[in-house]
Structure to design on (150 residues):
């Protein structure tokens, strides 16, 4: 794949950009998603689903998946859900992130799936909620976020 035309990407709406990321999976663009092996499974207006597989590199000192992996998944999926509601050239940043952890996760290839859904989209602020489940459908963590639209 050739290097993406960043000027052309800047002309896309948030939904179009997230759909591009979902289909193109631009490996040459450094990102937290590439680092962690995130997959964009579903992208629609106000809702995004991202998954990844745990690995030993994700271990905390106790030998289970570090809570930061779930928090990063949640921050990403909720922020991307907000992004799908934005016009071209409009950005956002996370103002607040509240994560609740429900259970530990092994580092041995467990597929975690996160769903982010916009709750409210105003002119300057958006809120969203997210859930992470394991490959057995069990809740691992859930969260809410507030994003500033810039």
């Amino acid at each position: 794949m050739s290097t993406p035309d960043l000027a052309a990407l800047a002309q896309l709406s948030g939904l179009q950009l997230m759909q591009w990321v979902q289909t193109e999976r631009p490996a040459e663009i450094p990102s937290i998603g590439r680092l962690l092996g995130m997959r964009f499974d579903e992208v629609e207006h106000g809702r995004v689903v991202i998954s990844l597989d745990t690995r030993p590199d994700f271990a905390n000192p106790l030998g289970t998946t570090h809570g930061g992996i779930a928090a990063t998944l949640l921050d990403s999926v909720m922020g991307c859900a907000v992004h799908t509601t934005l016009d071209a050239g409009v950005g956002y940043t996370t103002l607040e992130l509240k994560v609740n952890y429900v259970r530990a996760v092994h580092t041995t290839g467990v597929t975690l799936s996160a769903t982010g859904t916009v709750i409210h989209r105003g002119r300057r602020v958006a809120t969203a909620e997210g859930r992470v489940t394991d490959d057995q459908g069990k809740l691992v963590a859930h969260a809410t976020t507030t994003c500033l639209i810039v």
Summary: DSSP finds four helices and six strands in the chain. The CA atoms of residues 27 and 34 lie 7 Å apart. The mean pLDDT is 94. The helical segments are 6-9, 14-24, 32-36, 67-83.
